[in-house]
């Protein structure tokens, strides 16, 4: 593949608060804080660039100091942002509180992305999108924009991957026409939000998505690993036992690792192992992006988790 990976979605300031003791609701919890460039699609784009991929990000920058900081961080990381939008507004922010064991206790997000990344704006970026080997979008953008991207990708036969982000935001996909969407990447809670009918089992929910002509559903199952479902097959991969520091961005990292294998024409099993490996590496640090990773070190780490990998 000779083109680039085009990512569409939110770029935010991440403020992560790591509680020093067991988290207690309704009161103040002593914590340490870390500030990073964040947002689901931003995390994905950053890891894709670190792994040696050609990446362009279509996002929104506010005209404040946070927006300028985020834009400069992307440029310094080698991520193209020429087709992003600068607006007279406040840059979005994601604030999370993490329990002592690194699990997410609660979070809140303020995001300006949906009001600006409209279908009319995206339609003005068709030259950029047509040059993509893969388009990756998160559900931080509006449902009308997600529908525009799905229709555009289907018309031009470009693989589109949609990351659901959260249970609430995944509901945007429930009533969209998602025929020929290449892959959806939910966890078990998000899976049911993607569906336009109520289902009692995971398999019934996946069957609905296949009935709506999605090509692949990559179901993330936490410490039980993940399963890549296709219409005629599935690949089930277990998770390694690791010391988790922070769960922020693990799913984003997994998708970046998987895409990196896919654009290099690696086997489906190897792509999944690469996704898991990058997620494991991120789970063992504080923050959503492992800034010292590259393609070769990812392969070296993969052998530690999956010594039989070929």
The description of the largest β-sheet is: 8 strands, mixed
Percent helix, as a range, is: 25-40%
Distance between the termini: 21 Å
Q: Which sequence of SSEs, written as H and E, runs from N to C? A: EEEHEEHEEEHHHEHEHEHHEEEHHH
CATH class: Alpha Beta
Query: What is the tally of beta strands?
Result: 14
Tally of separate helices:
12
Question: Brief description of this entry?
Answer:
By secondary structure, the chain is α/β, with parallel strands linked by helices. Helices cover 36% and strands 23% of the residues.
Topology, pairings included?
Blueprint: E1 4-8, E2 12-19, E3 31-38, H1 40-50, E4 55-58, E5 60-62, H2 65-76, E6 85-87, E7 93-98, E8 104-110, H3 113-116, H4 119-123, H5 126-130, E9 132-138, H6 143-156, E10 160-163, H7 167-170, E11 183-184, H8 188-193, H9 202-211, E12 216-220, E13 226-230, E14 234-237, H10 250-263, H11 268-283, H12 295-305
Parallel strand pairs: 1-4, 1-9, 2-7, 5-6, 9-10, 10-11, 11-12
Antiparallel strand pairs: 2-3, 7-8, 12-13, 13-14
Helix pairs in contact: 1-10, 10-11, 11-12
Task: Please tell me about this protein's structure.
This protein is α/β, with parallel strands linked by helices and 310 residues long. The protein has one domain: UDP-N-acetylmuramoyl-L-alanine:D-glutamate ligase (3-Layer(aba) Sandwich), CATH 3.40.1190. The protein is 36% helix and 23% strand. The protein is built from twelve helices and 14 strands. The chain has helices spanning 40-50, 65-76, 113-116, 119-123, 126-130, 143-156, 167-170, 188-193, 202-211, 250-263, 268-283, 295-305; strands spanning 4-8, 12-19, 31-38, 55-58, 60-62, 85-87, 93-98, 104-110, 132-138, 160-163, 183-184, 216-220, 226-230, 234-237. Helix 1 (40-50) crosses helix 10. The protein starts with a strand and ends in a 5-residue tail after the last helix. The mean pLDDT is 95.
